[in-house]
Amino acid sequence: xxxxxxxxxxxxxxxxxxxxxxxxxxxxxxxxxxxxxxxxxxxxxxxxxxxxxxxxxxxxxxxxxxxxxxxxxxxxxxxxxxxxxxxxxxxxxxxxxxxxxxxxxxxxxxxxxxxxxxxxxxxxxxxxxxxxxxxxxxxxxxxxxxxxxxxxxxxxxxxxxxxxxxxxxxxxxxxxxxxxxxxxxxxxxxxxxxxxxxxxxxxxxxxxxxxxxxxxxxxx
Length: 220
Hints:
The protein is of the alpha/beta class. It has helices spanning 21-32, 42-48, 53-64, 72-86, 97-106, 119-130, 152-161, 175-184, 198-204, and strands spanning 8-11, 18-19, 92-93, 110-118, 137-141, 168-172, 187-191, 208-210.
């Protein structure tokens, strides 16, 4: 594919910008132990995540044996409380991410985050890791916006940045991210350093896969 002049990059958060699996596992295990379930492994949590907190709780409950989700409402409320307090537990940017973001900003390219993590915690993580007002748009899960792979949140970012799909590149680490990008008509890049495997990203429709964040600059 010929290089194009991009005006913006939209990033997934967990497994793409930030290695946050330990915060999710910590909060999930503390929640599940209330019901006698878990603890679950890091690898299990890599597949619990990606489709919003409610789906994470559902998957953990089912893994624990609550196949009918009898405890869902209580567990979901408790998880949100615990995660709100612990969303930065052992969270760090992936190697190469700060350098990639600095390079994009130096080129005048807008940067945005679109995550299925609750909105307040998305802001907390981004501002703690990268500083306030570093990203042009931060968008986490909101009740009034459909979660990924719906492109609804992407279209809202388009409006805020005043760009179109042709101007934008999307980077994420799950099939949900790849489908989100495809649904929005964006060139979609799979991050191989994240939570999921190459095959999932390929099957999700990634236009290209990269092994290190700075490789993204080839497609700007």
